[in-house]
Amino acid sequence: MIVVLKHGVPEEKKIQLMNWLEGQGLRLHISNGEFQTVIGLIGDVSGIDIDLVSSLDIVDSVKRVTEPFKCCNRKFHPEDMIVEIGDVKVGGGHFVVIAGPCSVESEEQIVAVARAVKAAGADMLRGGAFKPRTSPYDFAGLKAEGLELLRIARKETGLPIVTELMNINDLPLFEDVDVIQIGARNMQNFDLLRELGTLDKPILLKRGLANTLKELLMSAEYIMANGNERVILCERGIRTFSDYTRNTLDLAAVPMLHQLTHLPVIVDPSHATGIAKLVPPMALAATAAGADGLIIEVHNDPIHALCDGAQSLLPEEFSALAEKVRSIRGVIA
User: Higher pLDDT residue, 131 or 253?
Assistant: First the structure.
């Protein structure tokens, strides 16, 4: 249920109402806009008399929320969420480009790529230290060493780092990571999501391989309900019957999610297609569809990459793409 207050309500009356609602055993989610205040009621609202609340002189309207997700529901938070990572902002009109290799392979490799993507205009550096691989024989990342190499690349370039957490036991190693990424396979690892809710750190949450948008939002709800509202959603393609691309990029998810939630939505065209030549057109399409950002794989030697070389752009290809993305942003922003 949401209670919308009238413009210019005296602060003492607002506090009186909030105290009364909390006295009914409810948690409140407050969104203070320029012209109105929205109070989201979280908990058992069956005992709340809608007519009584509606009759209060400070209340503009009362509405029931039927969706199971509350914290990430746009009805509770009409204004776009802006997630800040140092000087970088995501959402609310702020567009972010995250770029880097699928996996961290060496100091030389990650620093070289970091310098290249920064020169092309990237805002953050991605790189996998822990890699979830389908085959147990594939390269699974440098783990703690990889995190240290990412920190070196950050020191060299100033780019905030984004990297994937796979196991709750590894969380202490991620204390100095700027953005924790939760991959598609862990989207419904609810124990992990609850723990992330206790952090004051941005979380990049990727949609699962075969998950609905509602399921993605419910996963975000697990994080937010436990106290961490700094969540960025990522559409990275879903499994369909297509046999020519790695996944099918669901670009309709971008405007749909923007209707449902106030959280920023970015797109990963690299994992969605699995083919380097398809990454630029899908990245441009995602930008035109209103995405709040892109996360793109870039490698300085894709042929010899230890992970996902087939979908990685060369630095010069990324630079050309970044310029086109800026052009599209200039048209639609």
Answer: 253
Three-state DSSP class for residue 280: helix
Helix ranges (DSSP H) in the chain: 11-23, 50-54, 107-119, 144-157, 190-196, 213-225, 253-260, 269-273, 279-288, 315-332
In single-letter form, the type of residue at position 20 comes to W
Whole-prediction pTM value? 0.92
Angle value at C-alpha 173, between 171 and 197, nearest 5 degrees = 30
Amino acid at 226: N
DSSP 73: -
Which amino acid does the sequence have at 254? Answer: V
Nearest to 295, CA basis, from 179, 132, 166: 179
Question: How far apart (Å, rounded) are the C-alpha atoms in residues 101 and 299?
Answer: 5
Rounded Cα distance between 333 and 282, Å, is 18
Residue found under tokens 């399921």 = 215
